[in-house]
Amino acid sequence: MRTATRISADRVRRTLNRPFPITVKPARADIAIANAIARDTKPAPEEIARALTWGADEKVLLALAALGWVASRGAGPSLQRAGNHALLVTVAASLLPHGLKLLFDQTRPDRRTVLGHINGIPLSGKRKDAFPSGHAMHMGALASAAGTLPTAPRWTIRSLAVGLSLTRVAILAHWASDVVAGFALGAGLERLLRLWTGYGRRLEDDDRVTS
Q1: Helix and strand numbers, DSSP H then E, in the chain
Q2: Alpha-carbon torsion angle 62, 66, 67, 71, nearest 10
Q3: pLDDT 10s per residue in the chain (211 long)?
């Protein structure tokens, strides 16, 4: 028992003292998905996926969020709050992946295939910046924010967010788990920032709090 306890303590100590960045390895499912894409894809769908993935690019989304914030300044309180929230979430979702990529190293799947490049897979981003997917983080935040909308636009936006996230897997810019992790982190980030911005809270609730 003492030996087992000593081994566990040593493992914890080594983990805590482990220097950054930490190397993250893809799961077997990640590798199987990436290999299937590299083997079966063609240049035409890769070009389409590469074009679509710009819809989740941080530069595009930052520009749209800034424009939306400016436009919301002359609107009512609800739209102003939504504009504030959208800009803050977009900035935070742009900064967080860069910070995490300083802590974690993971080689992108497009750097581990030759057949994929023959079949049209492009090169994307820095070699070891696979984890997590920043594009998926933005899309997770968008999908979460859409929860305040009526049913039809809510599911339209969420379907779009999932589809744009999957383009990162299709062009092998990220492993599937990178996209899942990024999407979940984005959704959690959006929910957390609601506590600050008040997004999703009804004006009647504000009146009740201030009265």
Answers
A1: 10, 2
A2: 150
A3: 444 444 444 454 454 455 778 999 999 999 999 999 999 999 999 999 999 999 999 999 999 999 999 999 988 999 999 999 999 999 999 999 999 999 999 999 999 999 999 999 999 989 999 999 999 999 999 999 999 999 999 999 999 999 999 999 999 999 999 999 999 999 999 999 999 999 987 644 544 443 4
